[in-house]
Automatic annotation (TrEMBL), chain B:
This is Uncharacterized protein. The lineage of its organism: Bacteria, Pseudomonadati, Bacteroidota, Bacteroidia, Marinilabiliales. It comes from Draconibacterium aestuarii. It comes from the Bacteria.
Length: 223, 54
């Protein structure tokens, strides 16, 4: 039994407790060229940057993947983008719940790793095309409701006895219109522990470094 | 001083994680099956990556 005493002397009791800092952006201020404070225009109250998402408050039953951003561009200042964990999500992914004590439990969407890589890539491509052509077409999009992700967790290092947990999710944000039963493609949303995960992770390590260092044919390697 | 043994028990039975059976542990490190898994997961990941891009 774990007893945790919070700073406010409020007790929460559970079998396993994990203390993590609040998931919020940096307290950055923004000013326009006239010196006016535009922080509330650029950033949401949680410190993340507003992008082309639907921030209108709505109940869980009305959440949709269309609420999520496509091009990750600030709607007011088109020269600013926020990728990965920098953009303000329209809402959480899972249904907000409450503990027995009334404490809100609202899991934050995972926006690290693979989704961030894909988002960063399409933003870079849109910016490059804008610079080259002078036109602002925003051809490249990456909605998290249409994007899958893979994650591999190491669980032991050994080429014949090691383990890795391979987790794939498709899409990251559940699309209840396309997949009314589970919100996700069940064939593509799997999790398995085994040697295969360890081998794949080892391969990915070399692949990412090959790409990061710009070695030959790095541009062929996907995010 | 008398040393107290601290016994930790979960609140409910379902809070205990499922323990893998011998068969489960065998398949996790069976080379032939895991080679097949590597191919299967690589295909899944590639499809996810391809479909995820606009």
């Amino acid at each position: 039994m774990a007893d945790i005493t919070w700073i406010s002397n409020e007790y929460e009791v559970g079998d396993f407790c994990m203390l993590i800092p609040g998931f919020a952006g940096q307290p950055i201020k923004a000013f326009d060229k006239n010196g006016e404070d535009i922080t509330s225009t650029v950033f949401a109250t949680n410190g993340f940057m507003k992008v082309d998402a639907d921030y209108n408050p709505k109940p869980f039953e009305e959440w949709s993947i269309k609420d999520w951003p496509q091009t990750y561009q600030n709607p007011t200042y088109g020269n600013m983008y926020a990728t990965g964990i920098a953009f303000a999500p329209p809402h959480s992914i899972s249904k907000p719940m409450k503990s027995a004590n009334g404490r809100a439990i609202s899991p934050a969407p995972p926006r690290t790793g693979m989704p961030s890589g894909v988002i960063g890539k399409i933003v870079a491509e849109n910016i490059a095309e804008r610079i080259k052509s002078g036109k602002f077409e925003r051809k490249h999009t990456a909605n998290m409701g249409r994007m899958g992700a893979a994650c591999i967790v190491s669980a032991g290092y050994n080429m014949t006895k090691g383990l890795g947990a391979t987790i794939t999710v498709s899409p990251v944000v559940p699309d209840w219109e396309k997949y009314p039963d589970w919100g996700r493609n069940i064939k593509s949303t799997v999790g398995e522990i085994g040697l295969a995960g360890h081998w794949i992770k080892l391969f990915l390590h070399y692949m990412f470094l090959h790409k990061a260092k710009g070695y030959p044919f790095w541009w062929l390697l996907p995010e | 001083m008398e040393k107290q043994n601290k016994v930790t028990t979960a609140y409910k039975d379902e809070f205990y994680p499922p323990i893998p059976t011998k068969a489960t542990k065998f398949w996790r490190t069976c080379l032939i099956f895991q080679i097949y898994s590597v191919l299967k997961f690589n295909l899944k990941i590639m499809l996810i990556v391809v479909k995820g891009h606009s």
